[in-house]
Design brief:
About 40% of the residues lie in helices and about 10% in strands. The protein contains 2 helices and 2 strands; from the N terminus they run βαβα. Strands 1-2 form a two-stranded parallel ribbon. Helix 1 (about 15-35) links the parallel strand 1 (about 5) and strand 2 (about 40). Helix 1 (about 15-35) crosses helix 2 (about 55-65).
Length: about 70
């Protein structure tokens, strides 16, 4: 069975966009090391607590630092 993680875009309001981005990449690396086959990123750019304005950048960066995702 293959498993994955859906990165819900809930973020604490005090986090900066850089912190949110870095945290997402860290989650992708953890998923990769745990053997997950998928890492999905939601997009809610209009909501303050669910703001991931460009998931494509997170996916591209995660691909550079993971082996299987």
């Amino acid at each position: 069975m293959k498993c994955g993680l859906f990165r819900t875009p809930y973020n604490q309001p005090q986090r900066t966009p850089k912190q949110i981005f870095d945290w997402s990449i860290e989650l992708a690396q953890i998923c990769d090391k745990a053997g997950f086959s998928d890492f999905l990123v939601g997009e809610h750019y209009t909501l303050a607590l669910e703001n991931i304005p460009m998931p494509e950048a997170i996916i591209a960066s995660a691909a550079m630092v993971t082996e299987k995702l």
